[in-house]
Amino acid sequence: MTQRLRLNKNADRRLKAGHLWIYSNEVDIKETPLKDFAAGETALVEASNGRTLGVAYVNPHSLICARVMSRDPEMRLDRSLFVHRFNQALALRQRLFDQPFYRLIHGEGDLLPGLVIDRFGDVVVVQLNTAGMQVLAEDIVDALEKVLKPSAIVFRNDTGGRRQEGLEAQVEVAKGTLPDEVLLEENGVRFVVPVIDGQKTGWFFDHRVNRAWLNSQVAGKRVLDVFSYVGGWGVQAAASGASEVLCVDGSGPALEQVARNAELNGVQEQVAIGEGDAFEALAALKADGEQFDVVILDPPAFIKKRKDINNGERAYARLNREAMRLLGRDGLLMTASCSMHLAPERLMDVVRGAVRHQDRHGQVIFQGHQGPDHPVHPAIPETSYLKALGVRVFRD
């Protein structure tokens, strides 16, 4: 018999508005003690008056103690549900893209909280970020085989969210055989993706549209790509006609992939690499008198929790100031943030402050966000996280 999870009075307002999360302080623990639930267990969620609100999975050890999977109290959390949701998600991606390279499942944005799946042709990479999804791992694999028939399914279960859920880190090929190189194509440029030992799932599809815009601006330009990872921005810039590209990253293995990806696209002569801390690299380039027509800043999340906001905003401000010092008289800055806790207007404030610090003028000529394969749930602001600004920086 499925357990019940009863909420406190008025604690159902967010759920009624469409949100899928339940926090531990919203639960009536006298009526339904959280300690009675096993991590990942299914429960019927009830309002304080006993009215059923839907089906969720529960983790009593997490601040977000439950996540709603369906409003239908009769819905079973099993293979059939995943097949249905995967087919819904696939229909959207096939409408959007003509090649099988995209984020197939974007957690709450695709009504599957705690689950991320990226597709690289016949290879899919899965992140089970919650105890509830971990419990359902076999059903997820079975549903993927039914819907996509992939040649390989990789589990990249090494995210910070898993630690918060009390889960162990684990990276493995869950099904099939992984090819020697996993390839994708984005904006007409080919890449090798390190799905086993790269960042996250190995690639960041979320910037696809923003990269496409920048690609239209770089012909004949000298480009600096900071936090380059495997060259998603920089190699595409070179393939789009940039005269020179310098990719800077703190990871030697990532820069080796930059070189491989540049070679894959025949732009190895235009692409150089530099290993080191981003702030130190920016300072060293300035000391050497270097100038660039375009600077790309795509850092990791400086603000992972609310308590990090002040320090994170200072880091973004410093980074943008240092980058602008390397721009010529009339340059272009592409600056981004994947920190959900950094509001879009605060990134604009960072740019404004950096422009004035350099005694220059700025014009925002592009505003971007995450691509359509990372759909935003209108009731869940947490699903909207990525911001990108294209800024012309110039002098009188």
From TrEMBL:
It comes from the Bacteria. GO terms for cellular component: cytoplasm. GO terms for biological process: methylation; rRNA processing. The keyword Cytoplasm applies. SUPFAM superfamilies: PUA domain-like, S-adenosyl-L-methionine-dependent methyltransferases. It holds the Pfam family PUA_3. Residues 184-349 form the S-adenosylmethionine-dependent methyltransferase domain. InterPro entries: PUA-like_sf (IPR015947), PUA_sf (IPR036974), RlmI-like_PUA (IPR041532), SAM-dep_methyl-trfase (IPR019614), SAM-dependent_MTases_sf (IPR029063). GO terms for molecular function: methyltransferase activity; RNA binding. It is found in: Cytoplasm. Keywords: Cytoplasm, Methyltransferase, rRNA processing, S-adenosyl-L-methionine, Transferase. Residues 5-71 form the RlmI-like PUA domain. Its main location: cytoplasm. Gene3D superfamilies: PUA domain, RNA methyltransferase domain (HRMD) like, Vaccinia Virus protein VP39. Belongs to the methyltransferase superfamily. RlmI family. This is SAM-dependent methyltransferase.
